[in-house]
């Protein structure tokens, strides 16, 4: 059930950002912003 | 300097000179070729779009055959692997007809979301747009799906860098215009293409125009443009053709009056920026645009290249050719159904009438995507002519 709360802000946002452990910590915030921006407006 | 380096330098200089309205010895040939290059490659569309090694092979062999000077796309336009990881299903691939098609319209935001976008854009993206757009994320493994998508994004970004580097190092071709040089997608385009869709946005323009304007003001020309502005320096980059690119697609739903009201402030900011920072922007304009020429007359000369899709470029040259460098002109209808001689004669007319005093880049008018958009024999004949013809 915890997954259903992933799309909350800022709690779920921060939880997702923390899960991106393959991105260096100092770059994670900028990456998360670009990532969400990109997949929200992706035009395939 | 190697031959490849010389070609690279020549191509960059030709682009800059055309944009600056300087007379050049030959005209630059830009490929407005998209999925068409996959159609005769020996690979299926469904294979190529999901396999970066195959796409690399297609792009390189395509260049070796046609030898364009510049490309809109190196097979980077359709990042389906990322969307597919998230269970995005609003598209169809038909390998028999080599066609990639989409649902006719989208709407991933409601009328009430305008206020949230202004209040907190990230919150809107995360709480409304993402679960609305990717229905599979409503399930129990959303986090793992998103992690995979983030890894796919990194893989895609590496492929973009690799393709652009390879085309420069092996063939002397500068950064492509899509996913090579920075691309700007302004707030009105984002509303149209990604959030609200054609139908709902068209109605919003009439019912809640102040909300649409407020979002356009709040998001402006988008985060990519803000980041570009923050990181760039005065002067055009002599390692690329344009410094950045811009796509006008959403203007098709706007009258001239609506364009002035909703879109012009965004475009005017771009014009002011390129003039102040001595940059060059390449703008691709879908559809027919003559109702917008009064706005293009205000473009700073030497800084704006405009690629028109359906416009009569001979008329555009007379009306706005003093202000902007024109790009395009070669009709896909003729490339698809004309004879070689007819195609070459039309290409000659374009160059003679549009490039005599500079300010013209040769390209196909429409985005060449499907098998019947173009004949390979005609394209080869036209490219040979454009490469050899001296102005």
Describe this structure in words.
The complex is a heterodimer of chains A (44) and B (391). With 44 residues, chain A is mainly alpha-helical. Chain A has one domain. Chain A has 2 helices and no strands. The model of chain A has no long low-confidence stretch (mean pLDDT 89). Chain B is α/β, with parallel strands linked by helices and 391 residues long. Chain B has a single domain (3-388), classed as TIM Barrel, CATH 3.20.20. Chain B is 52% helix and 10% strand. Chain B has helices spanning 3-19, 36-39, 45-48, 52-66, 80-85, 113-119, 121-133, 142-171, 187-195, 198-207, 209-219, 223-231, 256-276, 293-296, 313-320, 332-337, 340-354, 376-388, and strands at 29-31, 70-71, 91-94, 99-102, 183-184, 244-248, 281-285, 304-308, 325-330, 360-364. In chain B, the strands form 2 sheets. Chain B has an 8-stranded parallel sheet. A two-stranded antiparallel sheet of chain B has the order 3-4. Chain B is globular and about 60 Å long. The model of chain B has no long low-confidence stretch (mean pLDDT 96). The A-B interface holds A 3-4, 6-10, 12-13, 15-16, 19-20, 22-23, 31, 33-44 and B 78-80, 82-83, 86, 88, 91, 100, 102, 120, 122-123, 125-127, 129-131, 133-134, 137-143, 146-147, 149-151, 153-154, 185, 190, 193-195, 223.
């Amino acid at each position: 059930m915890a997954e259903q709360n992933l799309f909350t802000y800022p709690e779920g946002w921060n939880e997702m950002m923390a899960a991106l452990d393959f991105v260096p910590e100092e770059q994670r915030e900028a990456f998360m912003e670009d990532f969400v921006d990109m997949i929200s407006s992706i035009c395939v | 300097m190697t031959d490849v380096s010389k070609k690279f330098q020549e191509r960059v200089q030709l682009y800059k000179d055309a944009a600056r309205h300087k007379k050049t010895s030959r005209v630059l040939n830009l490929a407005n070729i998209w999925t068409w290059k996959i159609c005769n490659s020996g690979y299926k569309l469904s294979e190529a779009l999901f396999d970066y090694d195959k796409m690399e092979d297609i792009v390189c062999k395509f260049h070796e055959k046609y030898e364009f000077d510049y490309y809109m796309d190196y097979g980077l336009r359709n990042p389906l692997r990322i969307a597919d990881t998230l269970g995005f299903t609003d598209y169809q691939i038909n390998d028999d007809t080599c066609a990639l098609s989409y649902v006719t319209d989208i709407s991933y935001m409601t009328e009430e979301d305008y206020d949230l976008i202004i209040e907190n854009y990230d919150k809107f993206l995360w709480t409304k747009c993402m679960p609305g757009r990717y229905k599979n994320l409503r399930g129990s493994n959303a986090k793992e799906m998103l992690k995979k998508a983030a890894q796919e994004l990194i893989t895609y970004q590496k492929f973009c860098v690799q393709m652009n580097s390879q085309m420069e190092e092996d063939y002397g071709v500068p950064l492509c215009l899509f996913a090579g040089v920075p691309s700007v997608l302004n707030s009105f385009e984002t509303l149209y293409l990604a959030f609200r869709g054609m139908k709902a946005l068209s109605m919003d323009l009439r019912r809640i125009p102040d909300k649409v304007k407020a979002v356009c003001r709040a998001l402006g020309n988008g985060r990519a443009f803000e980041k570009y502005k923050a990181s760039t320096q005065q002067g055009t980059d002599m390692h690329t053709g344009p410094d950045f690119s811009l796509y006008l697609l959403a203007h098709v739903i706007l009258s001239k009056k609506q364009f002035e009201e909703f879109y012009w402030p965004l475009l005017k900011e771009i014009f002011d920026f390129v003039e102040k920072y001595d940059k060059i922007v390449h703008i691709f304009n879908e559809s027919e645009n003559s109702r917008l020429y009064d706005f293009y007359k205000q473009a700073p000369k030497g800084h704006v290249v405009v690629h028109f899709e359906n416009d009569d470029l001979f008329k555009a040259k007379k009306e706005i050719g003093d202000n902007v460098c024109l790009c395009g002109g070669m009709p896909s209808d003729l490339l698809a159904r004309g004879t070689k001689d007819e195609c070459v004669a039309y290409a000659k007319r374009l160059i003679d009438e549009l490039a005599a005093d500079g300010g013209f880049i040769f390209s196909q008018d429409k985005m060449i995507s499907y098998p019947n958009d173009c004949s390979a024999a005609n394209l080869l004949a036209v490219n040979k002519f454009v490469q050899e013809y001296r102005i």
